[in-house]
């Protein structure tokens, strides 16, 4: 699955350290004495930053070459990460929150940049796999966060991670500069204007259904950061619970990505309805059984099943959008998708932070998603028959 090229290298050198920083947020925020609800609010602001970055991004794509956007974004990443480090040293929670918000803004812009840039390239089978690989590397790297937290769960280690994150952004800027040879300004189109950007998500019946399906999955897995933190401490203890949940999440994200790649055997990544339905069913059952299980080995198994099946759903939905979007609307669709997903995920960072039995609510959202996936299958088959006829 691993393939080294500039896109992958940028993810490894710049984005993975950023994920490490995100994983250390609870430890960094502990230096300010924040509560669980405050932590949820903090993650919410980071996601809102992603939304703002998504709103700005389509306009930027129509004016500047991708490599220039990437260079500026990485340099801004370096600046905000450095200021976060300063905020920790001087214990300024105001500076910490503001910089984290802007870090979210830049992260949202880079995510859309990668999606749209890959969609502009001619080899769709290869770019589809690269899009999958980028997502797997970023989410799977939470495993590294868990390992770091097991080895040295300290504020000092969090500061080291921040330094690595800042340095990685500088190297990321260099990588984007070297990618200028295949960088060009996207042709201006109505699909990147805000009204058309959202209308492109519902331009066909099948798109409407996959959109609602993704919204339900986002609601079911909303507040992922709080889920990892709260479930980890509740089920595995305060000392190492968060680290264990991160290791399980990251490890199984890698495995899930590999399964998707093997299933498609080098072709463009496409949605497997049976695989998504089975994955949703397993997650729902695990969410129901997890709170009533008293055995630690059983809790680990159920946790593992949730994190194993989640990427089989989320990665395939993302790849399906990559497949069905046209090159001229890729930036708009990616931006709109990031906007609604981050708003939903961010809202539930707060809601799930103070609800004790959030697993029941999560399961209900995912049960509804099952019916939508079945409906999507029917619509896709109908569209295929129309094309054949």
From TrEMBL:
<feature type="transmembrane region" description="Helical">
    <location>
        <begin position="272"/>
        <end position="292"/>
    </location>
</feature>
<protein>
    <submittedName>
        <fullName>MFS transporter</fullName>
    </submittedName>
</protein>
<feature type="transmembrane region" description="Helical">
    <location>
        <begin position="361"/>
        <end position="379"/>
    </location>
</feature>
<dbReference type="Pfam" id="PF07690">
    <property type="entry name" value="MFS_1"/>
</dbReference>
<feature type="transmembrane region" description="Helical">
    <location>
        <begin position="69"/>
        <end position="89"/>
    </location>
</feature>
<feature type="transmembrane region" description="Helical">
    <location>
        <begin position="157"/>
        <end position="177"/>
    </location>
</feature>
<dbReference type="GO" id="GO:0022857">
    <property type="term" value="F:transmembrane transporter activity"/>
</dbReference>
<feature type="transmembrane region" description="Helical">
    <location>
        <begin position="95"/>
        <end position="118"/>
    </location>
</feature>
<feature type="transmembrane region" description="Helical">
    <location>
        <begin position="330"/>
        <end position="355"/>
    </location>
</feature>
<feature type="transmembrane region" description="Helical">
    <location>
        <begin position="198"/>
        <end position="222"/>
    </location>
</feature>
<keyword id="KW-0812">Transmembrane</keyword>
<dbReference type="InterPro" id="IPR011701">
    <property type="entry name" value="MFS"/>
</dbReference>
<keyword id="KW-1133">Transmembrane helix</keyword>
<keyword id="KW-0472">Membrane</keyword>
<feature type="transmembrane region" description="Helical">
    <location>
        <begin position="130"/>
        <end position="151"/>
    </location>
</feature>
<dbReference type="InterPro" id="IPR036259">
    <property type="entry name" value="MFS_trans_sf"/>
</dbReference>
<feature type="transmembrane region" description="Helical">
    <location>
        <begin position="298"/>
        <end position="318"/>
    </location>
</feature>
<feature type="transmembrane region" description="Helical">
    <location>
        <begin position="242"/>
        <end position="260"/>
    </location>
</feature>
